[in-house]
Amino acid sequence: MGEVAEFSVGGEDATRAERIEALRRRIASVPARGELSAVARGRVETTADRILPVPDPLAELFPHGGLVRGSIVAVSGATSLLLGMLASVTASGGYAAVIGQRRLGLLAAAEMGARLHRLAVIPDPGPDPVEIAAVLLDGIDLVVLGLGGASVPPSRTRAVAARVRSKQSVLVVTDGRWEGAQVRLEARVDGYRGVDGPDRGRLCATRLSVRAHGRAFSPRAMRVEVCADRSAVEWTSGDRNRLEDGRFRKAAR
Asked: Can you tell me the mean pLDDT for 136-156?
């Protein structure tokens, strides 16, 4: 599986220019656009090459079946959604980076199939995480940006959006306010199974309600289950397990 790369962008005394230069040097060692790049494979780009994968049950929430390169997605709620995206992209040969998310459970991402050697983590991006994200867009397929509750002004979001389109990456923003995202995803934990069942004390499955809405499509919603066994975590459609609904405990509101 490999080890996750934790990037440092300089100490507290580093200047802005020194932080950016340190990050650029690290990014230079990342193969351009990962193994998902059509150019890297030496063939003509197809529509599928413009889409980064998501967990299979979630594909129907997206107009194109996944994350469209050159777009910005806003995510709120259960962190399983972010972990599933990271797992899907890195398992398919892409590279991803996570900025400012100190508590994101990378073990769960690995259990979902994430390739940690294709994942960079910057837990402390300094005073301007948006600028760090803009630099990473130059060589990373999927960049997850935690805003720490901040509201990014429209003038800044428009500039970053232009860079996202130019670099054909996908930017996922969370934990803050970002106007202009093409897709917004909201995930809520509805229940869980396994704590009081045969595997007492062990969480076997979490049921999520996920809603998607955006500029170019009507709101969509579905229920999914994130199911864990002894060695892996898998995503399944909630409709497939409708008969087991009684085994789920409702999440506290």
From this structure: 95
